[in-house]
């Protein structure tokens, strides 16, 4: 997605006193012009599922359909399943550099930098020392052009299994 692009054509002949010009604009934002439309604005196309030992973060990869020359706003939502958002999960952070750094999400949306086609969402899980069995929650994400939100499922285990070098056994 590049946003509106404008070009001007000037033409003159040997008999014209001055050049004449016309300006054209190319749109790729979904508007319909002369019965045609093209929408290159990024949309969320997938979110990976993840598993974590209770007390370790869930990390989801959110993938966009294409890059943009401008920042893209993506709305994010944690949805309770058998895990209760706010009780079994904590802060949500995002990384646009492959996980080298994370920034805590404030509000319900993030601004994905120009050129990015994916980013990481990390959701803290709370170690509560109560055995609950596997618990699930959902991360939903969408841009303004998604017909509906895309989802990824996070599963939290507290049964002693080792996940990414971490384990938690509340049995």
Please give a structural write-up.
- The strands form 5 sheets. The protein has a 5-stranded antiparallel beta sheet, with no helix packed on it.
- It has strands spanning 5-11, 20-26, 29-33, 36-39, 44-47, 50-53, 58-64, 72-80, 89-95, 103-104, 109-112, 118-125, 135-142, 150-157, 159-163, 166-169.
- It has 171 residues and is mostly beta strands.
- Strand 9 (89-95) and strand 10 form a beta hairpin.
Q: Approximately how much beta-strand content do the residues carry?
A: over 45%
Helix and strand sequence: EEEEEEEEEEEEEEEE
Q: Profile the largest sheet.
A: 5 strands, antiparallel
Number of strands: 16
**Terminal-residue CA separation:** 51 Å
Shape descriptor: elongated
Features:
171 residues, mainly beta, 5-stranded mixed sheet, 54% strand
Summarize the structure.
This protein is mostly beta strands. The protein contains no helices and 16 strands.
